[in-house]
Design goal:
Structural class: mainly beta
Radius of gyration: 16 Å
Helix content: under 10%
Shape: globular
Length: about 110
């Protein structure tokens, strides 16, 4: 794992790079499966708005609706919290174009 952190006024940028090696000559392959993709979890800080390349993303009310929570691969998702007053915070997560397709999901609450 290689982690690069860049701080700019008003933001922190974290770039993760995972490199898997194996003691054999065969390639390491990680199969795509539901809920095996990226998961962002944060303490709720107000009203959550999620946007992707195709517009707003609506989370299902039921946390047990796993199929609806398993989002399709996308180049980015933005999670913005709007709190009391004018407080706005959040995170934008971008997927590197060289990555294989991976599903995304958010654990609500």
């Amino acid at each position: 794992l290689t982690l690069t952190v860049t701080r700019i006024p008003g933001a922190n940028i974290l770039d993760y790079q995972y490199k898997f090696t194996t003691p054999t000559r065969r390639d390491v392959v990680l199969a795509q499966n539901p809920f095996g993709g990226f998961c962002y979890r944060a303490k709720p800080r107000g009203r959550l708005e999620i946007t992707g390349p195709n517009g707003p993303v609506n989370l299902p009310d039921s946390v047990h609706n796993q199929a609806a929570r398993n989002w399709p691969s996308a180049h980015w998702y933005d999670l913005t919290y709007r709190g009391e007053g004018n407080r706005v915070s959040g995170v934008a997560v971008m997927d590197h174009p060289a990555n294989p397709l991976s599903t995304w999901h958010v654990v609500r609450g």
